[in-house]
Design brief:
- By secondary structure, the protein is mainly α.
- It has 2 domains: about 15-75, Orthogonal Bundle (Arc Repressor Mutant, subunit A); about 75-190, no CATH class.
- About 70% of the residues lie in helices and about 0% in strands.
- It contains 10 helices and no strands.
- It has helices at about 5-10, 15-35, 40-50, 50-60, 60-75, 85-95, 105-115, 120-140, 145-165, 175-190.
């Protein structure tokens, strides 16, 4: 007589396709952020605990996976939570903190930087930045010259994120207070409603 426990073990495990796809996507976001476009599909599959063939099955190839990972990293949902009254101070405080205070945000930013500096991925990033970053900022800012104002806002924000990443730690004491006050003032101006043209 066959042991029922052996029958259970011998049956092939059911795959959870969506969970595997999500694990691959999370692994890709991490690998692209840390290594850049030079990471391999094998590295991504290993990080996800999946077979490399599944990466190709679910995403078609490296470029398509990169675009999906970039889209997943830079959703525009965060903007809906921005409050004009408190935004400048909140963003200044976040920028004064350590980049390690929010590792997910730091990885997203590293992903953006690596994508921007690769000739292969920069054109893909440009399209996505227009759609997922500048467009929503432009809509949030509204008013006259919203496109140009959104670009200045984005450039300033990205510059401060680079400074925070290079600094690597939270600001302390008086330097932190001054930094938060000055950065708050900058973002208050950048988010102010524009007058008539």
């Amino acid at each position: 007589m066959t042991d029922p426990a052996l029958l259970v073990r011998s049956r092939p495990r059911r795959r959870d396709a969506e969970a595997t796809r999500q694990a691959i996507l999370e692994a890709a976001k991490k690998q692209f952020a840390l290594v850049g476009y030079d990471c391999t599909l094998r590295d991504i599959a290993g990080e996800a605990g999946a077979d490399v063939a599944l990466v190709k099955r679910y995403f078609g190839g490296k470029e398509a996976l990169f675009v999906e990972a970039l889209k997943a990293s830079f959703g525009s949902d965060d903007l809906s939570e921005w409050d004009r009254q408190t935004f400048a101070r909140e963003i200044a405080t976040m920028l004064a903190d350590s980049p390690h205070a929010d590792e997910a945000r730091t990885h997203r930013f590293q992903f953006l930087l690596r994508a921007a500096t690769s000739p292969t991925t920069a054109p893909l990033l440009n399209v996505l930045v227009q759609e997922r970053f500048l467009g929503p900022i432009r809509e949030w800012l509204g008013g006259v010259d919203a496109q140009a104002r959104a670009r200045v806002f984005a450039a300033s924000y990205i510059g401060f994120l680079v400074e925070r990443l290079i600094r690597g730690e939270a600001l302390q004491g008086r330097e932190r207070e001054i930094f938060i006050d000055r950065v708050s003032a900058i973002f208050t101006v950048l988010t102010a409603e524009a007058g008539p043209a």
